[in-house]
Amino acid sequence: MSSEEALGSTLSNWLSFNSWWLLLPFVMLLVVAAFIVAFVLLLYMISPLISPKPLKLNGAHVVVTGGSSGIGKCIAMECYRHGAFITLVARDEHKLVQAKKEVEKCAINDKQVVLCISVDVSKDYNQVESVIKQAQEKLGPVDMLVNCAGTSISGKFEEVEVDRFKKLMEVNYLGSVYPTRAVVTTMKERRMGRIMFVSSQAGQIGLFGYTAYSPSKFALRGLAEALQMEMKPYNIYVTVAYPPDTDTPGFAEENKTKPLETKLISETAGVCQPEQVAKIVVKDAVQGNFTSSFGPDGYMLSALTCGMSPVTSITEGLQQIVTMGLFRTIALFYLGSFDSIVRRCMIQREQSKAADKRDKRE
C-alpha cells in the first residue's frame, strides 16, 4: 500500500470515528425525547386514577353567598341547569327575590327548589351558622358551598380611608370564613363536599390601586391551601377561582372611582361575561380542581403563582414545571409594561400640575 493510500485510509477511519461522536449528542437527545414522551403518556393514562371523583350536581344542595347578582347569581343559574337545589344568600332581600325568579327559569325538573336567605355573612358567625342550619333542614346537607360574597374598592394607598381596609377584610375574607365554618362539620361527617372561594386575578398579583382589595383576596388563597390539606382525607375538595375583570354591577361601581393607572392596566386583559366565568368555575369545582383560571392570561398567572398549592392530577403538576420558565419571561414583559403605564401617568400628572401653576401666575 502506498503512503497516499495509507493516509487516505487513516483519514477515512478518523472521519468515521468523529462522525459517530458528532452524531452521539443527537442520538442521546432522541432517546431522552422518547423517554419524555413515554413518561407524559403514562402520566395521562394514570392521572384519572388519582383525580377526585366528580360531584354530581343533579339533586345536590348548593349554597351560593353573594348570589343575588353578578358572578354569584350566574353560578347559581349554572348549577340549577344541572339539576341542583339552590340556596341564595345575600343582604338585599329585593335583589334576592329578583335573582330567585331568574334562577328558577333555568330549572330542568319540577322538583328543584330555590331558597333565599337574607343575611350579612361578614358580621355575626352565630347568625350565619343559624341560617345555614335552616337551609340544610329544608334542602338537605350542603354538597357545595360557593363563597362569592365580596366587594371592591380601588384607589391610591394613602387616599383609601383606613376603615375601608378593615371593611374589605371583613367582607372578602371573613365573609368566606363564616359560611365555610358553618358547613365543614357536616361535610366531614358525610365524607364528601366541595367548597369554592371566588378570589380574583388581583388575588394573584398586586396591582396599582388595589392595596386594600388585593390583600383580602390573597388571604383566600392561604385559607384555601390550609383548608384543603385538612379536608382532603374526608373527600372534600376546595377550589379557588381567579376571575379577571367581569361585567357585573360591582365592577361598574368600582370603575366610577378607579385610578387612571388601574384602568389602563386592567384594559390589557379585557372584560369577561359572568356567564362565561360561571361555566368554568362550576366545572372546575365539580371536578375538584384546586385552581380555576380563565383564558391564557389566567392560566399563565396560575402556573406562575402555583407555589406549594395542591394539584389534582400529575399532569397538572408537570405542566406547571414545564411552563414556569417561559411564563416567567413573559411576565417580566408584562410587569415592565405596567411600570411604564404608572410612570407615564405620573409624568402626565406632574406636567398638568406645572401647567396649572403657570396659568395661575399669568
UniProtKB/TrEMBL annotation:
Catalyzes the reduction of 3'-oxosphinganine (3-ketodihydrosphingosine/KDS) to sphinganine (dihydrosphingosine/DHS), the second step of de novo sphingolipid biosynthesis. Pathway: Lipid metabolism; sphingolipid metabolism; Sphingolipid metabolism. Signal peptide: none annotated. It is found in: Endoplasmic reticulum. GO terms for cellular component: endoplasmic reticulum membrane. It holds the Pfam family adh_short. Coiled coil: none annotated. This is 3-dehydrosphinganine reductase. GO terms for molecular function: 3-dehydrosphinganine reductase activity. The gene is LOC113046084. Keywords: Endoplasmic reticulum, Lipid metabolism, Membrane, NADP, Oxidoreductase, Sphingolipid metabolism, Transmembrane, Transmembrane helix. It comes from Carassius auratus. GO terms for biological process: 3-keto-sphinganine metabolic process; sphingolipid biosynthetic process.
